[in-house]
Amino acid sequence: MPRAALPVGAWGAIVSKKNAKTGKWRASCRFKDMDGVTRVYSKHAATKGKAENALLAAMKERQDQGRQPVENISFGEVARRWLFSIEPAKVVVDERGEEALESPRGRIRRQTWEQYEAVMRRYLIPGLGALPIRAIRTSTCDAFLRSLTTDGKGSSNVRIGKTILRQIMSFAIRHDYYVGANPVLEVDRVSRIAKKPRALDMAALEVIRAAVRNWRSEPGLPGPAPTNALSDIVDVMLGTGARIGEVLALRWQDIDLSGEVGKVSITGTIVEPRKGPKFRQDATKTASGARVIPIPRFVVDVLLRRRLESPATNTIGAVFWTRNGTYMQASSVRRSLRSALTAAGLDPTLMVTPHAFRRTVATLLDREVTDSAAAELLGHSDVGITRKYYIEKHREVSDYRETLQGLGGQR
What was the pLDDT predicted at 374? Predict the structure, then answer.
C-alpha cells in the first residue's frame, strides 16, 4: 500500500535509532516543506526522548517559518487598507436632493462606512496604529476596548470598535498579514450600564407641544417669519412613531388621505453624510422599516393643512420643505427643538430629543395594546429591540388587593 502523501507543513512518524558506536540517539522524520518537496530531517541527542523532543521543536519552528506574514506591517496600515477595501461608491445626488437611481450599492451604506472611519480615526489608529500587526493579541484587543469606556459611558464606541477590530484582523488573516486565529473572537464582553428607556408623560407632552407651537411667535423678532413646521413634525412623529429622518423624507406621493383611514407610507430617510451633499435615500434604515401606517385624526389634520400651504417652490413634493424648496434636515430640526425647549425654560433632565417621541409611542402601545404592536409600528423585526431600547417599564402595579386579601387569614 503506498505511503499517504503529507500535506504541506506537516511531518510524518518519528523514527528513533541508537548508534551502537557512539551511543547517541538519532530521531528522524519526513517533512513536506512549503515548496511542496518532502525532505528528511533529523536530530541527535544522548537519549531517545531528548532527540525526539529536539526534532519536534525543529519541525514546529520550520512550520511556523512557512506561515510567517507576507510582510512586517503596522496595524494602522492594515486598518487603512481594510477601510479602503470596503469603501462604497460615492452617492450620486440629483438636483432634487434625492439619491440618484444609478448610485451603486456596496456591501455597506455610506453612512455606516463614515461611522467606521470616524471611530477608527479617533480611537483605533491613535491606540493601536503604531503596533506591528503581528503583535496584536487577544489581551491587546481586550485592554484597548476597555479603555474606551469610563464610568459606564462610551459603550457605543466599544461596540463599534469591536466590530471594526474584528473585521480588520479578519482582513489581515485573509491577506496573510497575520497568522493564527482572529484574536478579537476571544475578547471578553465589556460590561456597560444599561440605559432604561424613558417615555414622556401627557403633562410633559403638553408642555413640549406648547413650547414648539409658541417658539419665535413673538411679534417683532428679526429673521424669517415663524412657521408651524417644528410643531407639525412633532405631531407627525407622535402619530406614526417614525424616526425623524423618515418623517422628513415624506413626500406627498407617500400620503394617502383619500379613504376613510389616512395612511402614510414610510419609504425612505434623510441622510446627512459628514462629507458631501445631504440627500433623501429611497430606502429605510432596515428592510422591516418600509411600512404603511394608518394615522390618527390629528395627523390627518396636520397633513391636510400642510398640503394647502405647500408653496410653488416645493417642486420635490416634500411634506416638510425648506424655503429653498429642499428637504429639511434632521440636524436642523434637533437644533430648533433644543432652542424652543430652552426658550420655554423646560427642565433639561427630560432629555427631549426626536427619539423621545418614538419611545413615548412605543411605551403607550405596549401599555394599551401589546409590545408586538409597538414593534410593528416602529418598524422593528425583533420585538426584543423594542422592549430593550424603547419601552419604559411599568412603574405602577395593577390592583391585586382582592386576590392578596386571601393571604390575610380570618380576621
Answer: 93
Identify the bridge partners of residue 30 per DSSP, sorted by sequence position.
Answer: 40
DSSP reduced 3-state for 114: helix
Query: Does 215 score more than 90 pLDDT?
Result: no
CA distance 350 to 199: 9
Q: What percent of the chain has pLDDT over 90?
A: 52
pLDDT at residue 43, as a whole number: 93
Residue 336: exposure state from Cβ atoms within 10 A (0-12, 13-18, ≥19): middle
Cβ atoms within 10 Å, residue 160: 19
Buried b vs exposed e over 256-274: b needs ≥16 C-beta within 10 Å? eeeeeebebebbbbbbebe
Q: What is the DSSP string of 313-376?
A: T-TT-BSSB-TTSSB--HHHHHHHHHHHHHHTT--GGG---HHHHHHHHHHHHHHHS-HHHHHH
The identity of residue 39, as a single letter, is R
Extract the C-alpha cell encoding 378.
416602529
CATH class of 202-389: mainly alpha
Shared fold status for 75-186 and 202-389: no
* CATH code for the structural domain at 75-186: 1.10.150
What's residue 71's pLDDT? 63
Residue showing cell 429605510: 284
Alpha-carbon distance 285 to 378, whole Å?
11
Segment 243-267, tens digit of pLDDT: 999 999 999 999 999 989 999 999 9
**Global pTM value:** 0.73
**C-alpha cell of residue 338:** 433644543
Q: Is the pLDDT of residue 99 over 60?
A: yes
Neighbours of 287 (CB within 10 A): 9
